[in-house]
């Protein structure tokens, strides 16, 4: 893998209410902002790590467990280390999504990441990858997630042109209409319903799919 693939920086220009964005791999400097965001709301989706490295599990009524995000800076650092390993091994490619602030810096606005649907192998080696994302609570409603998903999708199809990767899947709970809108706006048409399949996932979902080209 070249440095260009390992450390990409994607720039998305501002359009209307959607601010200009920079997407790049997560860095240690992001830990305080990530932990602060996690204390505002616990995203239970779009926080992928390797199966053995998922930082936190939350008990649900009935004894079931559900994956959730890091709870504090220690968890955030562990999550970040998992993302670093993902870039190194090429099997999980997560981008911090940053918005320029008024004083020449950047503020954390979200996350967008890729893994293989089968959770094995490097991205590009399998036909189907999956995309996940979240937007910081204060940054929602300005088209940040769709812009980030479009940028990561274009980047991965471009970077892995000629590889086996043929399509990217986007899955959300049926009770998450905001995510359904993200899919539509990012060019991922609805494909089919995905019925609940406990203990792997507990709610019915929508599968959206974007094909290469
Ligand atoms: C779903 C989510 C990623 C949307 O991100 P976003 O950057 O706000 O995306 P958009 O601005 O395009 O808004 C998407 C939809 O959210 C709704 N929305 C609008 N303003 C909103 C606000 N202030 N807060 C929450 N949702 C809002 C609208 O329905 C909007 O669709 P519209 O543009 O057709 O009106 C974000 O709400 C989130 O992070 N949720 C928690 C984690 C999650 O669900 N991740 C996805 C897992 S599949």
- Low-pLDDT stretches are none
**Average pLDDT over all residues:** 87
Structural class: alpha+beta
Spatial shape:
globular
What is the percent of helical residues? 25-40%
Q: Determine and state the CATH class.
A: Alpha Beta
Say which molecules are bound, naming each kind only once. Answer: coenzyme A
Distance between the termini: 23 Å
* Largest sheet properties: 8 strands, mixed
In total, the number of strands is 10
**Rg from alpha-carbon coordinates:** 16 Å
What share of residues are in beta strands? 25-35%
| Secondary-structure element string | HEEHEEHEEEHEHEE
Strand order of the largest sheet: 1-2-5-6-7-8-10-9
CATH fold-type name:
Aminopeptidase
Characterization of this structure:
This protein is of the alpha+beta class and 213 residues long. It has a single domain, classed as Aminopeptidase. The protein has helices at 3-6, 31-40, 73-89, 144-159, 177-185, and strands at residues 10-12, 21-25, 56-59, 65-68, 92-100, 106-116, 128-135, 167-173, 190-194, 205-211. It has an eight-stranded mixed beta sheet with strand order 1-2-5-6-7-8-10-9, with helices on both faces. A two-stranded antiparallel ribbon has the order 3-4. A hairpin with an 8-residue loop joins β1 and β2 (21-25). Bound molecules: coenzyme A (COA). Residues 43, 45-46, 133-135, 140-146, 172, 176, 178-179, 181-182, 185 line the site of coenzyme A.
Topology:
Layout lengths: L2 H4 L3 E3 L8 E5 L5 H10 L15 E4 L5 E4 L4 H17 L2 E9 L5 E11 L11 E8 L8 H16 L7 E7 L3 H9 L4 E5 L10 E7 L2
Parallel strand pairs: 7-8
Antiparallel strand pairs: 1-2, 2-5, 3-4, 5-6, 6-7, 8-10, 9-10
Helix pairs in contact: 2-3, 4-5
């Amino acid at each position: 893998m070249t440095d260009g693939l390992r450390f990409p920086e994607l720039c998305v220009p501002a359009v209307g209410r959607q601010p200009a964005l920079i997407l790049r791999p997560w860095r240690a400097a992001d830990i305080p902002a990530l932990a602060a965001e996690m204390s505002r709301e616990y995203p239970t989706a779009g926080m992928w790590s390797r199966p053995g490295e998922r930082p936190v599990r939350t008990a649900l009524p009935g004894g079931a467990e559900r994956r959730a995000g890091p709870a504090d800076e220690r968890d955030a650092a562990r999550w970040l280390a998992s993302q670093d390993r993902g870039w190194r091994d090429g099997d999980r490619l997560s981008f911090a999504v940053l918005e320029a602030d008024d004083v020449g810096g950047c503020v954390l606005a979200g996350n967008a990441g890729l893994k293989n649907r089968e959770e094995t192998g490097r991205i590009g080696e399998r036909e189907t990858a999956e995309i996940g994302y979240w937007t910081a609570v204060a940054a929602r409603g300005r088209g940040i997630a769709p812009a980030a998903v479009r940028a990561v999708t274009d980047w991965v199809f471009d970077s892995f042109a000629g590889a086996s990767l043929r399509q990217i899947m986007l899955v959300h709970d049926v009770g998450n209409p905001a995510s359904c809108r993200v899919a539509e706006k990012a060019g991922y048409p609805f494909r089919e319903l995905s019925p609940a399949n406990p203990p792997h996932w507990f709610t019915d979902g929508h599968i959206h799919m974007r094909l290469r080209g």
